[in-house]
Amino acid sequence: MFCSSCGREVSKEAAFCEACGAPLSSVGTLAGNEEKTTKEEINPPLSGLGVASLVISILGIFVAGIILGTLAIVFGLIGMSQCDKGQFSGKGFARSGLIIGIVDVVGAIFILLCYL
């Protein structure tokens, strides 16, 4: 079995996860009381769009803020939507990319207005 909080393997007899201390009363069970056997069933894969949003937004701080910031916003929104549906994990990456993307766009517009 795996801990639903941290994803580490735990023994069936344990009451708490040895790694994170989370209670294991509901670990290893689905809504229909079926046992979860793999880490992927507990933690879905990482959202590629969420990670791309974060990377692009960081690049947008230094280069082409309006263009890369806009892409980061779009990728971040799509990545957060995928995470909300439970298809992927990594909502924090998507949210961070979205926020930094907004900062990129606002900062680039501010800089353009200062030079006009």
Low-confidence stretches: 27-34
Number of distinct beta strands: 0
Major sheet characteristics: none
> What is the number of helices?
4
Helix share, percent = 55-70%
Radius of gyration: 19 Å
General shape: elongated
Distance between the termini: 62 Å
Strand content: under 5%
Order of helices and strands: HHHH
The mean pLDDT is 80
Which class best fits the helix and strand makeup? mainly alpha
Explain how this protein is built.
The protein is mainly alpha-helical and 116 residues long. Helices cover 55% and strands 0% of the residues. It has four helices and no strands. α3 packs antiparallel against α4 (91-115).
Characteristics of this structure?
single chain; 116 residues; mainly alpha; 4 helices; elongated
